[in-house]
């Protein structure tokens, strides 16, 4: 038997186990960094990892998650994450933490080196950068600058407009064609002659047969008269419809001019001008706000579509079986969180908890919940409550937040080179809520800013822009209601603000006059383009008058021979 | 590489028991076909080191079976999935799933189970096949190969001579 045993092999095995133990921490660190980087699409880094065995604890020191859209910035950074793990569950390949402490959590921190990874990123970033440099072309909404070119718009819209005219024309033709059929179905001159012959024949019959025949004849003529009468109402309604079509044709140029001006953001003068001025900045804020959520939401639903594509080679698929007390593969029951959030000009210290963090909420049976409270030195307060429920599809996430007395300083409202706008200081109260159901986004952020002080540029610009800049600088309080709809991948932003009225007042009738002129020019151009087709539509209802005469003639003929 | 081949040749030509050679190949079969990180591989490694199996042959066989495992991966996944989803085995799997030991081994992974089952199916033919080959080689082929023209030509060539030198140095 001993000839089969190699005693020194035991020593080698022990040495291998020792080496494995020594590389465990770096191995865990590498695994987390690798998996995190794969998931985020930008570098996820850890300073170090400590695994303790009795009790089983895992400590992650300085976790940094790069923002994939801004590689020199972290989405989030945590100073220390420590968790107590269930050792028995770990043996069962389940990562269950009763408690977790996340300390020194911060957002949007700067990185000392780029967190970009090869070949994955930043085409989107480059696009955003280009847009940002260009800024919003204020010329499109201010007078004395470029107004929409009617010829260009008509050229672009020609096909669609022709389609609209064809639509009206087709309906009118259909009505006319219908009347040709109706008239053909009426009793003809032959029918009237036939009735007359029958009447003549009846006159020569005996009284008994004559009475019966007259009754029959009357019945037939009355039937025809009824058919003729039924067309009266039809003729009336079709004439009305043709009048409406003619009216629509007459108004088409004006209506289309209005619609096209609205599409250019110029419909109501100043309604939405703040949205236009802040467009680029708003998109960036919304995008930054959603980046972290997008990354997290990718993993909230848990199971990916492995069934469709098959598992990666060498990894296989873990099949689950019924358990007495089913637990997900990954679960943190309660995470105590504290950190600092940079908001406006304030550093808001916050703490709170996140409960039931898991990728398999359907198995755990509870949604993830979040509660955070914070304050800053100047007295600003922050409250955040959220529920992320992915127990059933579609998942539903709800996040509410409230900020009071937040100090704002040097917030860029418009990066336009023609009209840069910076909110130098102010105090903000913000109420927001975000709801995401199956990827559909519905968010509102209502902000009221008081004690505001704006700095608007435009020294080199024309009189109107300078007037606008002065008007903005005079604003001491304002309201902005931001709405975000659409989907997570393609959010649609809307903004209502009383700054619109303030700007409107500042620029007054001058801009309205220019906008009206531009609209009239567009309407005239459209009228010239569509004129002939529209005119032919205008007189269509008169064609029905001929049918009126024919109906009356047939009715009279029938009545004349009715015994 | 030449050294390893020479070692294998030496083992084949030595008095080492064919069963020990077959055991090395068998252990390589199980370790090579399983995913490297599978927990049971630690136990197999202990066996490889403690049992007096030939390490050179184990390493070469391990590399060979690892390559085969990569090729067999889709088949192993399908086989494992079929077994794990088989209605008649559900009771067995459920009982194992509720046991810490089996969960630790990760038996419910389709690829792991499939590859272990393939290794089990191949174990007996591979073990006895290796014994058969070694015996036949020693009894019939060894002398004929040594005297063959190919071997003589190999010995006289540059690389063949070098290989033969290594082999000779091991034999003494």
From TrEMBL, chain A:
InterPro entries: CHP03545. Residues 297-323 are annotated as: Disordered. Keywords: Membrane, Transmembrane, Transmembrane helix. The chain crosses the membrane at residues 7-24. Residues 314-323 have a biased composition (Basic and acidic residues). This is Uncharacterized protein (TIGR03545 family). It comes from Halospina denitrificans.
From TrEMBL, chain B:
InterPro entries: CHP03546, DUF2062. Pfam families: DUF2062. The chain crosses the membrane at residues 21-38, 44-71, 111-134. Keywords: Membrane, Transmembrane, Transmembrane helix. Residues 7-140 form the DUF2062 domain. It comes from the Bacteria. This is Uncharacterized protein (TIGR03546 family). It comes from Halospina denitrificans.
């Amino acid at each position: 038997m001993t000839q089969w045993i190699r005693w020194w092999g035991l020593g080698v095995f022990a040495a291998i186990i020792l080496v494995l133990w020594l590389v465990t921490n770096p191995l865990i660190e590498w695994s987390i960094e690798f998996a995190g980087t794969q998931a985020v699409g930008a570098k996820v880094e850890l300073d170090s990892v400590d695994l303790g065995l009795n009790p089983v604890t895992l400590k992650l020191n300085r976790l940094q998650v790069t923002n994939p859209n801004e590689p020199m910035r972290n989405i989030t950074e945590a100073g220390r994450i420590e968790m107590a793990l269930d050792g028995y569950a770990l043996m069962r390949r389940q990562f269950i933490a009763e408690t977790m402490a996340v300390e020194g959590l911060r957002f949007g921190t700067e990185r000392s080196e780029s967190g970009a990874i090869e070949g994955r990123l930043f085409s989107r970033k480059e696009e955003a950068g280009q847009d940002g440099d260009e800024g919003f072309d204020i010329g499109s909404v201010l007078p004395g600058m470029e107004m929409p070119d009617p010829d260009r718009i008509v050229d672009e819209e020609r096909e669609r407009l022709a389609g609209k005219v064809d639509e009206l024309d087709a309906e009118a033709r259909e009505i006319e064609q219908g009347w040709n059929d109706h008239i053909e179905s009426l009793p003809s001159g032959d029918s009237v002659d036939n009735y007359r012959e029958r009447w003549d024949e009846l006159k020569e019959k005996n009284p008994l047969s004559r009475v019966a025949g007259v009754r029959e004849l009357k019945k037939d003529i009355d039937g025809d008269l009824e058919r003729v009468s039924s067309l009266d109402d039809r003729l009336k309604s079709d004439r009305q419809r043709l009048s409406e079509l003619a009216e629509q044709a007459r108004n088409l140029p004006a209506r289309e001019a209005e619609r096209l001006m609205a599409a250019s953001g110029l419909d109501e003068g100043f309604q939405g001008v703040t949205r236009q001025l802040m467009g680029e900045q708003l998109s960036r804020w919304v995008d930054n706000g959603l980046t972290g959520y997008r990354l997290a939401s990718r993993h909230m639903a848990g199971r990916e579509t492995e069934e469709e594509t098959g598992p990666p080679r060498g990894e296989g698929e873990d099949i689950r079986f019924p358990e007495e007390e089913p637990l997900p593969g990954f679960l943190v029951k309660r995470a105590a969180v504290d950190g600092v959030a940079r908001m406006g000009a304030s550093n808001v210290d916050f703490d709170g908890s996140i409960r039931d963090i898991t990728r398999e909420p359907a198995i755990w049976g509870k949604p993830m919940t979040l509660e955070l409270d914070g304050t800053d030195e100047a007295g600003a307060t922050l409250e955040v409550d959220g529920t992320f429920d992915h127990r059933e599809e579609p998942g539903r996430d709800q996040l509410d937040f409230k900020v009071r007395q937040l100090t704002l300083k040097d917030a860029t409202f418009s990066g336009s080179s023609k009209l840069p706008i910076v909110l130098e200081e102010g105090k903000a109260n913000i109420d927001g809520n975000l709801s995401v159901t199956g990827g559909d986004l519905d968010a509102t952020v209502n902000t009221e800013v008081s004690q505001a002080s704006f700095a608007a540029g435009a020294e080199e610009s024309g009189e109107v822009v300078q007037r606008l800049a002065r008007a903005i600088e005079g604003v001491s309080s304002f309201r902005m209601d931001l709405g975000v709809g659409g989907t997570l991948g393609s959010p649609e932003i809307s903004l209502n603000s009383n700054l619109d009225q303030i700007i409107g007042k500042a620029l007054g009738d001058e801009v309205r006059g220019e906008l009206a002129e531009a609209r009239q020019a567009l309407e005239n151009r459209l009228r010239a383009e569509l004129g002939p087709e529209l005119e032919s539509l205008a007189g269509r209802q008169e064609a029905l008058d001929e049918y009126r005469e024919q109906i009356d003639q047939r009715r009279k003929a029938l009545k004349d021979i009715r015994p | 590489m030449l050294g390893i081949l020479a070692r294998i040749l030496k083992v084949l030509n030595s008095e080492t028991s064919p069963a020990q050679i077959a055991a090395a190949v068998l252990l390589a079969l199980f370790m090579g076909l399983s995913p490297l990180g599978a927990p049971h591989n630690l136990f197999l490694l202990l066996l490889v080191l403690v049992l007096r199996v030939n390490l050179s042959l184990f390493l070469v066989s391990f590399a060979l079976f690892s390559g085969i495992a990569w090729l067999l991966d889709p088949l192993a996944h399908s086989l494992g999935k079929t077994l794990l989803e088989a209605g008649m085995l559900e009771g067995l799997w459920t009982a194992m799933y509720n046991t810490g030991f089996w969960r630790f081994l990760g038996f419910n992974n389709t690829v792991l189970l499939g590859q272990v089952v393939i290794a089990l199916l191949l174990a007996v033919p591979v073990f006895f096949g290796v014994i058969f080959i070694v015996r036949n080689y020693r009894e019939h082929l060894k002398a004929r190969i040594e005297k063959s023209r190919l071997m003589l030509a190999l010995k006289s060539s540059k690389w063949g001579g070098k290989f033969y030198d290594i082999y000779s140095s091991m034999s003494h």
